[in-house]
Design goal:
This protein is of the alpha/beta class. It contains 13 helices and 14 strands. The chain folds into 2 domains: 132 residues, Response regulator (Rossmann fold, 3-Layer(aba) Sandwich), CATH 3.40.50; 180 residues, Methylesterase CheB, C-terminal domain (Rossmann fold), CATH 3.40.50.180. The strands form 3 sheets. The protein has a 7-stranded parallel β-sheet with strand order 8-9-7-6-12-13-14, with helices on both faces.
């Protein structure tokens, strides 16, 4: 059965060209087109599409509001179209938090040329987004992605990873005595680094995990999220505003520090050297993912041996599996998100099928477990 698609965009030209491209893809069919968010809600309830493509800037009702209403009334996988600008990144992140599954850059020049590459990318993304309904079900994915309250956090010191000020060395845990009347917690394996890799569904998943960590978290963290280069700075700022720990986009030469999460820049590769120094390298065109979880995990295995706690969250594909294998060979620990809470059960499934997972956890338990092991 063909994947049915509803197109939502205020540009008649974009609706027409996008419709032509989708209808020319095998196994796909455009069943309707809406010019604003309000029409999108009505047509979703009437036509029950498998996938919705959604613009964010429209008259009558914007795309983000439409996403929220659709998720309330008739949860449906939504693929957002966004501009590759800083503001476009911020709006796209809002749309993902509202319930959209994934996004693609909106480039009128590429649409006009009807490039074969764009057509294939569009087909692959629509097929992937359509799978969210299968297995775990979109309603469960949406439940695990409920918006996080933006409660005001106390001011945090500016992240200066190169600072020579006295701080605990990376991985040095500070242990408080157990409160009176409560048994002391059993000694856990000492870690020097937490490394988290994710893709589709990752922005909201990372929010859920990182907002559970206290400001005093005693391990450094590296984050690898498949994301364009123009998006990672905005995403790091967003996480930093929501979390008690500090979050920043990684820069070449940064030092890993307790309670600081460094996000791999889009379009580049993040590697870790011995001594906790971060290397940010140009993205190799031969690699599918820039940044790549495999590369970061592999470098962490070389730098920290058995003292890495790696976590693979929701995402399509299998990036992270080979890096996790290297970590396991060194004696490090690997966790994977479970199927029911994953938006796309690809990356964590690869870990589970390869028997590399020490624990398989629901998303909402990952942050809690990260606190327990420190």
């Amino acid at each position: 059965m063909a994947v049915s698609v509803l197109i939502v965009d205020d540009s008649g030209f974009f609706r027409r060209r996008l419709g032509e491209m989708i209808n020319s893809c095998e196994g796909m069919e455009v069943i309707g087109a809406a010019s604003n968010g309000r029409e999108a809600i009505d047509m979703t309830l009437k036509l029950k599409p498998d996938v919705i493509t959604m613009d964010y800037e429209m008259p009558v009702m914007d795309g983000i509001t439409a996403v929220r209403r659709i998720m309330e009334k008739c949860p449906t996988p939504i693929l957002m179209f966004s501009s590759l600008t800083y503001e476009g990144a911020r709006v796209t992140l809002d749309a993902l938090e509202a319930g959209a599954v994934d996004y693609l850059p909106k480039n009128f020049d590429d649409i006009s040329k009807n490039s074969a590459v764009l057509k294939q990318t569009l087909a692959n993304r629509i097929n992937t987004v359509s799978q969210v309904k299968k297995g775990s079900g979109l309603s469960q994915a949406v439940a695990s992605r409920a918006p996080i309250g933006r409660a005001e956090q106390p001011p945090k010191p500016a992240v200066s990873a190169r600072s020579s000020a006295t701080t605990r060395p990376a991985g040095a845990a500070t242990r408080s005595p157990a409160p009176a009347g409560r048994p002391a917690r059993a000694r856990v394996k000492p870690y020097s680094l937490v490394a988290i890799g994710t893709s589709t569904g990752g922005p909201v998943a990372l929010q859920k995990v990182l907002t559970q960590l206290p400001a005093s978290y005693s391990l450094p963290i590296v984050l690898v999220q498949h994301m364009p280069s123009t998006f990672t700075a905005a995403f790091a700022e967003r996480l930093n505003s929501l979390c008690k720990i500090s979050v920043a986009e990684a820069k070449d030469g940064d030092l890993l520090r307790p309670g600081v999460a460094l996000l791999a820049p889009g379009g580049k590769q993040l590697m870790i050297s011995k001594g906790g120094k971060v290397k940010v390298l140009a993205g190799d065109e031969r690699l599918n993912y820039k940044p790549s979880v495999d590369i970061t995990f592999g470098s962490a295995a070389n730098a920290y041996s058995d003292r890495v706690l790696a976590v693979v969250l929701t995402g399509m594909g299998s990036d992270g599996c080979e890096g996790a294998r290297l970590l396991k060979q060194k004696g490090s620990t690997v966790w994977a998100q479970d199927q029911n809470s994953s938006v796309i059960y690809g990356m964590p499934m690869a870990i589970a099928k390869a028997n590399l997972a020490d624990e398989i956890l629901p998303l909402l338990q990952v942050g809690e477990r990260l606190c327990e092991v420190v």
